[in-house]
Amino acid sequence: MFDPVIAPSGTLLGLLQRGRGDGTLHALTAPRAEALAALNQCVLRDPRHDWQVENRSLYYARLYLDLNGELDAIEAHLFDSEDVLDTEESRTGLALAVLGHLASYGRRDALDLLRRYAAQGSNWAWALDELALRDDDAGLRALAAPVLARFGTDPEGEAELACAVRDAFEPRPWRLWAEDPRESIATRVRAAQETGCFDRWQRQMRPTGPRPGWSVRAVFEWAQQGMERGAALHVPAARCLAAVAGPEDRPEILQAARGGIVGARCTALRYLAESNDPDALDLIEAAVADGTTVVVEAAVDSFERMRSVAAVDRARRWAQRPDELGTAAGRMLACRGGVQDRDLVLGALREAVRGEGPDAPTLWTLVDGTGRLGIACAAPVLRHIYRETASSHLRGRAARALAATDPSFATGFAVECLWDCEETTRELAARHAETGDARVVERLRRLAADPAEEAEVQTAVRSRFGPDAALG
Description:
There is one protein chain. This protein is an all-alpha fold. Among the domains are: 12-205; 208-306. It contains 30 helices and no strands. α7 packs antiparallel against α8 (108-120), α12 packs across α14 (183-205) and α23 (342-356) packs antiparallel against α24. The protein is flat, with a radius of gyration of 27 Å. The relative contact order is 0.06.
């Protein structure tokens, strides 16, 4: 999937793309046509920083409900001719998930669209999973014939059907179809279920990888073979070393860490770091200085996973370095440093924002560390990250850090966070938002009564009202 173009954070479209609570609040006061146009653009051109983990579907579905929005644009998108040419889940997944939530809220037009797309669309499996959670048995049984018609009756088609049944995220439709009164349907589905079970058993009986009795050299060779295939195996290989290596093997492992072939060097560095070997830190520093890109990445990652006092002390020395190791040292101090490291963590946070912007991957750890260490003077930087990042997960982390560092959080960002797209951010807001604001009380009541809301959010809401409070 191509990287989405994110509008400026001060625009309605930019707010909605980011999933910010202010996006909903602004959309509800904007002209309805303008709000719906921005909402449709978000749903049809998925704006998520990471579409597989970030939440937007419930956020957008709720806004469709509030705006009483029509689904014509979603329908046109799903059944466009491009659906045949571009079968990637990322093209239609968000739209289908939004329809799923709308169906759970009782929107019959959304349910009908899901049924139709499950019968005709390329991303039918996603639509079927949404229906498995929301549709009745009769609706699902009606889809058995069109779904099975996608698979030929030759051996290749039956094998594809078996894979589809085996890999289904929601098994309910297939279980229903296995008991279908139409023998032609039930027989095919039951056969596919049996084949899928047999495939899983066969994979379990054919394990690949290390065997008992392997030597250190054999583990290094296995790691290198993976590297040559484009599969980084140095992490599991390091675990294998922990099982097979003895004190007499340390010279060979140290030699590999100093200058072995790529797979062996990455494996040795990881093993030495995890075992807190006294030479590990020096070897990591040397690998960053003269290693290939892959070796440098493995060395830095191995360093960040170290838990020893010596590693934290070395991080204090390395934090000012202008390279990957310096950046990793800042993250280590954010995770495991003490109050004496506040200035170093704050400096790393500011440098990351200046050098890489509000979406820098290193910010996730630094933002968490800023909150953990209670660096109050970092609040302006955290507010900037909160407003500008395209990642709703990073924004949620910034909100959590602001709750720990910014006295104005409860009356400021916490209020808009009640409408945020991420449930963890809504939960945080439910615990902190100042109830003197009438909007907060009304929103808390609505979240408590919404059957689609996450249980953790509703628990946080109820904790604010008390056990005897009336939320209705």
